[in-house]
Amino acid sequence: ELGIRIPRPLGHGPSRFIPEKETIQVGKEDATMHTLFAESFATLGRLDNVTLVMVFHPQYLESFLKTQHYLLQMDGPLPLHYRHYIGIMAAARHQCSYLVNLHVNDFLHVGGDPKWLNGLENAPQKLQNLGELNKMLAHRPWLITKEHIEQLLKTEENSWSLAELIHAVVLLTHYHSLASFTFGCGISPEIDCEGGHTFRPPSVSNYCICDITNGYHGVDDIHASPAGIIPVSSTESVCEVEALMEKMKQLQECRDEEEASQEEMATRFEREKRESMFVCSSEDEESAATRDVSRHFEDTSYGYKDFSRHGMHVPTFRVQDYSWEDHGYSLVNRLYPDVGQLLDEKFHIAYNLTYNTMAMHKDVDTSMLRRAIWNYIHCMFGIRYDDYDYGEINQLLDRSFKVYIKTVVCTPEKTTKRMYDSFWRQFEHSEKVHVNLLLVEARMQAELLYALRAITRYMT
């Protein structure tokens, strides 16, 4: 009556992909989750939607929040406003306006100069110099060399120290992979954020004209099948789960009977690496970066390209020669104390997390499946484990799942609900969120390995 426009939430719940009734409801959480919510609220000043989806896996969420808090707020080489600005630069590379907007607020809150937000060219030269590393880490980390590191460390008055650079690299990889999680789980903006609300007139009997124009036709709609998805009979989906479990059993038996030779293992890796290039998202239209987000980075046309395209041959990164456990961890811990430990814990939790269930089945050993997902992601980045048989990947990950993995990891901004719905149709949403945690951590570790190897080469 007063003509005041009242914001109303655009979405239902923290994720566009997961029905609200299937997420953890605030107020109905157990004691562990309640503590995590309180921690998240104390750290971020809000209970954000990322937390509300990640809480499906409280053990991981606790490790994630601890790491993020340390990177953004505890003692470290970089000043606070630099940290948030680097978060903005990293999230912007994937057009993740959700994360960009969160950090714009935080940047201003810790005293950052609003002028920097007009575009990267308004930020100090030292931060502008980080732009090249940001884009390569986000899209083609295998191209990073010790020369790139040298440029950052040796540019006279705008040079980075080694400790500052490690802090920056960890922040960049953290936010690239968090953008993957945000898009992969369809995280909705909160009501007070851009894109999180609409101003619509109060509805008459909970039903208004704008609902109809927005394609919403009342409660019954929620139970209809998502647009463009052919409902799958539950027996077909159950068969999918059974078939996957049968394959796992067969592979385990083959493993026990015979082991492939090193040459054969190397051939299978190369084959999988080549095949991963031909997996591309079906919704492969170009998504144009909005000016709002793209001003935070240079070279907007630079994006993901498969490493073996156009005759470019990238040498295989062999984990025996440079691994997180033996090399990366100690380098990070030496130059930025405690962070190596926090990252290591987070990698281990995501990789080893299991409830021994698969869809409706209990007491299942899922380690083979988790390893296949992790190693497939590293394979897409040209990283090889000598002791792994890459022939298992094709047995365990079907095409629609590979499309989802590659999209979320390499071009997360192109992820759609259709892709999310089309893999593992009989699995719980919590299991799909777990897949996303594996994607996030495997991607972060792959980026880190290339950056840290280049830093090590520079130092030696």
From TrEMBL:
Gene3D superfamilies: AhpD-like (1.20.1290.10). It holds the Pfam family PA26. It is found in: Cytoplasm. The keyword Zinc-finger does not apply. GO terms for biological process: cellular response to L-leucine; cellular response to leucine starvation; negative regulation of TORC1 signaling; positive regulation of macroautophagy; regulation of response to reactive oxygen species. InterPro entries: AhpD-like (IPR029032), Sestrin (IPR006730). It comes from the Eukaryota. Its main location: cytoplasm. It catalyses: a hydroperoxide + L-cysteinyl-[protein] = S-hydroxy-L-cysteinyl-[protein] + an alcohol. One of its GO terms (cellular component) is nucleus. Keywords: Cytoplasm, Oxidoreductase. GO terms for molecular function: L-leucine binding; oxidoreductase activity, acting on peroxide as acceptor. PANTHER family: P53 REGULATED PA26 NUCLEAR PROTEIN SESTRIN, SESTRIN-1. Belongs to the sestrin family. This is SESN1 protein. It comes from Illadopsis cleaveri. The lineage of its organism: Eukaryota, Metazoa, Chordata, Craniata, Vertebrata. The gene is Sesn1.
